[in-house]
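Let us work through a complete example step by step.
Step 1: write down the sequence.
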Amino acid sequence: MATIWRIQQTADPKFPYRITLESDSEVALALRAKERWPGPKGNVFCLREQAPPDPDEPLRSWSGLP
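Step 2: predict the structure and record it as tokens.
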């Protein structure tokens, strides 16, 4: 039961990244973020995703880390 941290680029100009934690192929946590990694201050502004992405929304994977 490995948990995977996945970063995807979205088409949303305000929150261009989707960060998910997935366990057993199920999304445990999904966030929309302004940056894909913390800056010098160590913060990333993000919002919890309220609904799964639209099937037509293009999502480009950046990484998947165990």
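Step 3: interpret the result. Strands lie at 3-9, 17-23, 26-33, 46-48, 60-65.
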